Description:
The structure holds 2 protein chains of 2 kinds.
Chain A: H1 2-19, H2 23-47, H3 59-84, H4 86-93, H5 96-100, H6 106-112, H7 121-137, H8 143-169, H9 180-189, H10 200-209, H11 217-223, H12 229-261
Chain B: H1 2-21, H2 23-32, H3 35-50, H4 58-75, H5 79-89, H6 92-97, H7 102-131, H8 141-166, H9 175-189, H10 201-209, H11 217-223, H12 229-265
Amino acid sequence: MPRYLRLLTIFWKNTLVSELEYRLNFWSNIGLSLFWLIWAALSVRVYFLHAERIAGWNYDELLIVMGLFFAMNGYRQMVLEPNLSRISEYVRLGTLDYVLTKPINSQFLVSLRHIGVYNWGDPILGLGLVAYALWRLGHVPTVNQLLLFIVVILAGMVLLYSFSLILQTTTFWLINVERMDALVQGLLETGRFPVNFYRGWIQAALTIIIPVAFMTTFPAEALLGRLEAWLAAAAIGLAAILFVLASALWYFALRYYTGASS
Amino acid sequence: MRDLFRIYRALLQTAWARALEFRGQAGIWILSSIFPLVMMVVWLAIVDEAGPLIGWGRGDFISYYVGAALVHQLTFVWSVWQWDDDIRTGHLSVKLLKPLDPFHYLMTEQLGWKLFILVFLAPLVVVVAWLSPEISYSLTVEQFVAFALSVAAGFVLSMLMSSAFGVLGFWSTQVANLYSLWFGVGQFLSGWIAPLALFPAGIRQVAYMLPFRATMGFPMAILMGQLTRLEIGFGFAVTLGWCVVFLILYRILWRLGIRRYEAVGA
């Protein structure tokens, strides 16, 4: 375990050093992040020109979900996209061999080797928006609520990782598909708004099948003290199950791959 | 002129073949562009809450966003990233060696994808619209022709805007980000976030004068049968005006930039 932590520090420090060479790009990206955050907040304002509450959520509460969406999207662009989207490239070009011959766990290498520093502003700004919205509501989360929030958001991150890994691993078989991460991005976009906005089967699908609800809606509800405790337990359970499934699929795909090249 | 026609036909065949080859890719792009439908859901939730807004009920919002999703696919152009790439990596030099202006390659590449969308996605949308009781477009033949022309005009304007921003790449490395900003502001004023009819009158007037409406709001307003002949004519005039502006801008920047580019390369 300490070995892996040390490797992680080396990997990420390397990327950081090379990316920071491009200073202008680095700083202009946080400007861009801020722009998109304000854009999102303003676009939500347009909706509230016509109604006080939507499906039980008012403007400030919606800002919390919005902020969490930004944070999750930032996590996706910093950690998930730079790594998992390379899987299809490895498979197509055969460079997966370089990953497999290294003396460390292949899933670790393929998931955490790179980090995208360009979107470092997103998680920070997103959480900043959450804090701002909570201040506007005059609501300070209790310790319990904060703990519940941390549990659910961590589960959400694991869920997003597992789901992305499953989708990307399918490129072992669907070789011509390059930008699977565009699909993941599109699905996460539904998380901009609370899952109660969607009706019937869509809401159910976004809670159970593609658990976007756990990524933005439920953590927001946890902060607002509206989350029932069993849902937090369900979050942990679901995250564990999906993680095991994703890992199993990865190892299964590896067996398939090795078989093909020999 | 006849030469250009033959060249375009040949390039289009290549672009079409490429689009077909990467149909899995196209599938992913189409699936991932569900954002208009997400916004539609929000508006439906608002209508459930507050009742019809200025005469826009459930059916109107569904009709609008389903049509908007298709129109977006047909008018959105990603050439600016191609320009950025070509200039930065020097690949533009390869294109300059060819006898044709690079613009034509980018144009036919986009057209290939648009043809793909027209052949595979449009019929799907038409069937969905036909079968769904909540979607209705009151269309005369004349209005449909106007709609088709407005989509084409929106596409051309997008191409010209992309190119004008793209050639800024001769001076700046931040072109893709600049275009993102432009596009982001445009999403408010084009009818993405909300149909333009739902904006306060002042903002609406501004939106009518800007180029963004041509890519979404204007075609959709025609499709929904909400415009008089005069208003349609006005919309086309604005679109044409902006096409001219961006064409001139693009060509001037291109001339200035290419001199600079070759100087550095030599």
